Backbone:
């Protein structure tokens, strides 16, 4: 084993030991609950645009994008555009002609204006409409038709029904070895009082959709190593790797 492999191997061992530490899991859960009250995930920006993600998940996405080097990243759920700018900036650093396709049912004018004015917009295309509508999916197919190495990130409506439909519609785009990342699976694990005015909650969220999807689809598996090393993630069981 060379020194680089040795380093990676040691990390694998410590990560799997860490994942079994129930006292650490308890502290993490408590930290999660307490910080969520302050809308922790809204507090960060990527190159000037708000990105509604935890820094840990942003790092995990960076690792995935570097490893996969996709030539198209499809993201549902744009909000302020920070996640699109993030993906585009990594594709820019990697080089090549990789593009990002963002889909949102409601691209607010001030967000559109800021995204379009951004230096990374040269790698971004926006579609306004529901991610599960026939019209939007048809447009995505046209854009994706010549792309062989696609990564998908689902972060729009977090209801079971919507995410399951997104998984059915968008998983076929994902290349073998690439990922379909499903955000906000943590809703299943958090106390209901954190989402009092939402139309999703325990039993009706991205994690329940992932479970149903995986029962029928053996082409994907949960990459547990990612959540095990992050500990703090909004996507437990949401990093789905296409294996065949
Ligand atoms: C959590 S935010 C996305 C955050 C963004 N990915 C980021 O990391 O900064 C969810 C977004 O999903 C959008 N959305 C809700 N329902 C949708 C649907 N049916 N199709 C597409 N987008 C939808 C909302 O308008 C909102 O902007």
Residues:
């Amino acid at each position: 084993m060379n020194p680089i492999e040795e380093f990676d191997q040691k990390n694998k061992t410590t990560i799997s030991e860490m994942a079994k530490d129930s006292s650490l899991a308890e502290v993490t859960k408590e930290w999660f609950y307490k910080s969520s009250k302050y809308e922790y995930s809204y507090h960060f920006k990527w190159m000037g645009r708000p990105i509604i993600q935890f820094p840990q998940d942003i790092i995990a996405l960076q690792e995935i994008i570097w490893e996969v080097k996709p030539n198209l990243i499809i993201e549902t759920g744009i909000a302020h555009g920070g996640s699109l700018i993030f993906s585009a900036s990594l594709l820019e650093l990697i080089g090549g002609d990789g593009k990002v396709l963002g889909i949102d049912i409601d691209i607010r004018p001030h967000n559109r204006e800021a995204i379009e004015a951004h230096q990374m917009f040269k790698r971004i295309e926006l579609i306004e409409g529901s991610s599960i509508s026939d019209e939007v999916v048809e447009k995505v197919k046209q854009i994706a038709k010549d792309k062989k190495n696609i990564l998908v990130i689902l972060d729009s409506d977090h209801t079971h029904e919507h995410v399951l439909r997104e998984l059915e519609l968008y998983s076929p785009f994902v290349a073998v070895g690439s990922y379909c990342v499903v955000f906000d699976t943590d809703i299943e694990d958090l106390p209901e009082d954190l989402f009092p005015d939402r139309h999703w909650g325990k039993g009706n969220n991205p994690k329940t959709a992932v479970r149903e999807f995986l029962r029928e689809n053996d082409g994907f598996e949960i990459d547990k190593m990612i959540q095990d090393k992050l500990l703090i993630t909004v996507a437990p069981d949401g990093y789905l790797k296409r294996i065949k």
Observations:
- Residues 51-53, 76-80, 82-83, 103-106, 130-131, 155-157 surround S-adenosylmethionine (CB under 6 Å).
